[in-house]
Structures are given as structure tokens and as C-alpha cells.
Design a protein that fits this description.
The protein has one domain: Alpha/Beta hydrolase fold, catalytic domain (Rossmann fold, 3-Layer(aba) Sandwich), CATH 3.40.50.1820. The protein is built from 8 helices and 10 strands. About 40% of the residues are buried. The protein has about 260 residues and is of the alpha/beta class. An 8-stranded mixed beta sheet has the order 1-2-4-3-5-6-7-10, with helices on both faces. Strands 8-9 form a two-stranded antiparallel sheet. Helix content is about 35%, strand content about 20%.
């Protein structure tokens, strides 16, 4: 079922502390010819991504098991998955903008620089990766979903496949809407989902994920994203929880990584 390699002290100079990085190589990586290269999916909240003894103690997305199953059934080709753990400063490090309603100051820039300037070059130099936006994805849930969308918009030349599961697009007074003002004119494939009545209030105001994500989908459609570039799933009864993202992940991967 492939291998999860854990690097517990990956330097992040601008953050002033190391990061834990989990890199999944599929079965095919070891058996493929030496010249064969693989696409790469980057994921946030790495401690919640894999079915692995050293993952979070609660439910995870089981992304490695899902991907191997999809490869076996012929739905997608093998991908590397690079998952970065969040820290106890998660809300700030996943905030591209201030969220005044929750008194959270944006601290995402050092994390962004870590991904773009340190981690991705390392992965591309050590592993046999297929580069370019068509072969590089980024995915996350909640604020991790916001960060996936933010990175995809800011670096469309790097990340072409963008997955936002229950993304916090309402963060910073809907700032993502005003930041994403045009089609990037790059190769794009964007997946969005949420629960139809998914509501949480973790930081002092109510966040309506179903309504906000649907609104952002229509926002991107108005900017010219076509049906082959953009998909939105609204799941009745979906909650803001790892088990819900685990359940929707096979559908998301089938479309996003095709």
C-alpha cells in the first residue's frame, strides 16, 4: 500500500521552527522504470491526511488508502502526496488575511514561503516528480481549503489542481472573493464541496460553509471558469469533520486528479 515517509525536522527558516512533513509514495513509485515521473498532490493538516500509526489519534482522511484504491480500479494514475502538519498556531498560519471578527492576525506568508521556496524544490529534487500546474495539486479542508485556493490563485504556474473541501472562503470578510478577480488563464481544475447545512462557530462568529462555498463557486463561474475546470458538490447532511472529508475524498480525487 505504498509508503509514508515522515520528516520531523524539515527547516522552515522564516517561521523560525522546523515542520513535520509526511511524503507518501505509491506502490508504483518503486516498481516503475527509473525515468518515470509522478504528479504530486500537496495537502495541509498533514497529521490528519494518512491512515498511518503515527497520524493523528482521531479520524483521518485515509488519503493513501483512497488513492491506492482509485489507482487499482483505474480511475486515476499514481500520485505522490506531500502532507505538511499544521501547528498549534494553525488559525494564524492558515490566515492569508486578518480575521478581525476573531481577533486573528494573518501569519500565512512564512508558511507560503516554506511551501513554495523550500518544500516544493526539495520534493522536486529528491523525488521523480512531473512538474507544471497540470501535474501539481494542492488540497485542504476548512482553513486548509482556503489556503489551497489562495495558493492556487497566487501561484497558478505552480498549482493547477486545487481542492477545497469545506473551504473557509468567508474568512476575512470574504476577502478571497475580492482577491480572485479574474481567470488565471492557466491550466486549472478546481474542486469545491461543503455540507448543505454545514455551520460552525469556532472563533466567535457563525460560519455558513454550504452557502459561502456555493457563492464562491458561482463567483468563479462568473469569472469564466468552465465546467471542465470547476466542480462543486453540496452534500446534504455533511458536517465539518474529518470523517465527512474522508467520505467525500474518493469523489474529489476521481475528478480532481483525473
Amino acid at each position: 500500500m505504498g509508503h509514508v515517509h515522515i520528516i520531523r525536522d524539515f527547516p522552515s527558516p522564516l517561521e523560525g521552527r522546523p515542520r513535520t512533513v509526511r511524503i507518501y509514495t505509491p506502490d508504483a513509485y518503486d516498481s516503475a522504470p527509473a525515468g518515470h515521473r509522478f504528479p504530486v498532490l500537496y495537502m495541509h493538516d498533514g497529521q490528519n491526511v494518512f491512515a498511518h500509526p503515527e497520524s493523528a489519534v482521531y479520524e483521518t482522511w485515509c488519503a493513501n488508502l483512497t488513492l491506492e484504491h482509485l489507482v487499482h480500479e483505474g480511475s486515476v494514475e499514481p500520485w505522490l502526496i506531500v502532507a505538511v502538519d499544521s501547528t498549534n498556531n494553525r488559525l494564524a498560519e492558515y490566515s492569508p488575511w486578518d480575521e478581525p471578527r476573531s481577533h486573528i492576525r494573518a501569519q500565512a506568508e512564512p508558511y507560503v514561503r516554506f511551501l513554495v521556496d523550500s518544500l516544493k524544490p526539495y520534493v522536486d529534487s529528491v523525488y521523480r516528480t512531473r512538474q507544471g500546474p497540470q501535474w501539481t495539486g494542492i488540497m485542504g479542508s476548512s482553513l486548509g481549503g482556503l489556503m489551497a485556493l489562495y495558493l492556487g490563485r497566487r501561484y497558478p504556474e505552480l498549482f493547477g489542481r486545487i481542492g477545497g473541501l469545506s473551504p473557509s472562503v468567508m474568512w476575512g470578510w470574504n476577502r478571497l472573493f475580492s482577491e480572485w478577480t479574474a481567470h488565471t488563464r492557466r491550466w486549472s481544475r478546481i474542486y469545491l464541496d461543503a455540507g448543505g447545512a454545514e455551520i460552525i462557530d469556532p472563533v466567535g462568529y457563525t460560519m455558513y460553509y454550504g452557502d459561502a462555498t456555493r457563492d464562491f463557486y458561482h463567483h468563479l463561474k462568473r469569472l469564466g471558469y468552465a465546467d471542465h475546470e470547476l466542480l462543486f458538490l453540496l452534500e446534504p447532511g455533511g458536517r465539518h469533520h474529518e470523517l465527512d472529508w474522508q467520505r467525500r475524498l474518493p469523489f474529489a480525487m476521481r475528478w480532481l486528479l483525473l
